[in-house]
Amino acid sequence: MEDKENKDIREIENNAVETSKTANKGLKPKKLLVCFAVGAVIALALLLAKGVFDTQDAKDIVRIVCDAFFAAGAILLVAGALVWTFDNGITDGLTYSARTMLNLRKKDYETNERESYSAYRERKHKNRGTVKEFLISGGAYFLVSVALLLVYNNL
């Protein structure tokens, strides 16, 4: 009886350690820099497309820069929301059923061992996405666009 209690306690401790490892995934500076770089590329592309370097009026320049930063921030925030949605398993049932339906067409479907839904969910959620980095970089671009909007309204 005591061995079973010790085994249960060890199992609980192991689960707690695994949970703390996955819960304490902090910000990764490299991924954060990549997200900021993607936002900068989006903003620069919009600046070039709107012709910010050809404009002479200060109010038009601030408006174009504000629009570019807002678009970059919005795209990064939406990307972060999508990653969060997929990480939380909202689409797991749809993707599992679609994958299973597509596998029905394979000739060796009956002979192959199929993955259960719980195993599929566990495998999918082992490596989570970079939600925090998307949200922080998108929020930063969004805040810059709000500051530029305030400058634009005061010009």
Unreliably modeled segments: 19-24
Q: What percent of residues adopt helix (DSSP H or I)?
A: over 70%
Largest sheet at a glance?
none
Mean pLDDT: 82
What percent strand? Answer: under 5%
Q: Cα-atom Rg, whole angstroms?
A: 24 Å
**What is the N-to-C succession of helices and strands?**
HHHHHH
Question: How many strands?
Answer: 0
Distance between the termini: 78 Å
Structural class: mainly alpha
Shape: elongated
What is the count of helical runs?
6
What does this structure look like?
The protein has 6 helices and no strands. About 15% of the residues are buried. It is elongated, with a radius of gyration of 24 Å. With about 160 residues, the chain is mostly helical. The chain has a domain at about 25-90 and about 125-155. The protein has helices at about 1-25, 30-50, 60-85, 90-105, 115-125, 130-155. Mean pLDDT is about 80; it is low at about 20-25. It starts with a helix and ends with a helix.
